[in-house]
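Worked example 4.2. Below are the chains of a multi-component assembly; read each line carefully before continuing.
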Amino acid sequence: MPARSDLRERTRQAVRAELVTVAWELFVRQGYDATTVDEIAAAVGMSQRSFFRYFSSKEDIVLGKFQAFGEILADALAKRPGEEDAWTALRRALDWFVGGSERDPRYGLELLRLTDQTPALKARRLEQQTHWQELLAPHVATRLDPPATGANDLRPAALAGAALACMNVANAAWVAGDGNQSLGRLIDEAMRAVRPSAF
Amino acid sequence: MPARSDLRERTRQAVRAELVTVAWELFVRQGYDATTVDEIAAAVGMSQRSFFRYFSSKEDIVLGKFQAFGEILADALAKRPGEEDAWTALRRALDWFVGGSERDPRYGLELLRLTDQTPALKARRLEQQTHWQELLAPHVATRLDPPATGANDLRPAALAGAALACMNVANAAWVAGDGNQSLGRLIDEAMRAVRPSAF
DNA sequence: ATTGACTTGTCAGCGGCTGACAAGTTGGGC
DNA sequence: GCCCAACTTGTCAGCCGCTGACAAGTCAAT
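Applying the procedure described above to all four chains together yields the following structure tokens:
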């Protein structure tokens, strides 16, 4: 029942990682749509069928990168001081991304550019963010003035969703400016517009 | 240059409408994924190839319904009194949907249920909402305290995006409650959570 | 009635994706 | 070291969404 042996699981992850690396290179060079799964598989020396044994879809190779972000965001939010109000805590949770954008903007720029320019990827990314919203909501719930109780309370999801919408707007502006403006400031601007009284 | 003659254009629209009706029935009965384009085409007595002459994709048959909504929303927002603050105007613009949900909830419920339960459709619907955001933004811009000037100002898009996020949360809750709760109240709750001082 | 614009079906093909099967490889207990 | 069971792999065949090309037909306007 413990699934695969550790060794097998590790090699599996290694193959996945190589697939991501190779595919990413092709995507950046010739575009997502113009790159076929056959091509990716051939580039790492495996059959197309085997590719789909590592990734359930071509999109997954890109979207996998975003999956982890949701958990990181939720973690960051959970770790904020309990007295912090929800909106401020959400803003601070996003600092993890801001930090990344400052250390090395290239990675984020590539990721956002590709996902924004490819409609299929953009759509999937937005869908995935609704999962982020669900991960964030419980940690928002405890920070509301009358704390949220059941799942009937719309406030946590609304705040999380609004914050993510602001993040998207800021990200788009950041990409449009080739990463030259401070992502942190852009997020501030977007989030302050929604809540003028905040931080 | 005037494109198709009126008659041809009208029959074209009629065929499109029938295609939508028939396809919608199949989608509701057996699910979106379980319905093939061949099936839809056969049901109206045309070849699959001709189907794609009326709709550029299978998704378009469903998403076409949403396309008009963005324009309606933007219109409604534009028609709000100029002194109204942005957030209130956005809330009021959404009343058009609220009205529809009260007149006949079934249509909206079906539409939302199908699009929420089918990942591909959910993703595309969210993507389309980023277009709504762009349509709304200019009408938000004029209602800001220091009115927004250039496209560099993130505030209009942020507010529009946040409002749409609230709408989505409210819609989801509305569907979860089988349309028994007032959609207007749910939107109020979500939007007030983001802007406690509002309306 | 003729012409030219428009629509249609058919066919052939690509790309993403899946099930089934057979062949091969490998980790771990003996 | 050997062996077996577990796992991986490639191949093949096929479905579905979608597209280009072509030939046959329909229809509006003259």
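Take a moment to check your reading of the output against the notes. Chain B has two domains: 6-54, 59-194. The two ends of chain B are 50 Å apart (CA to CA).
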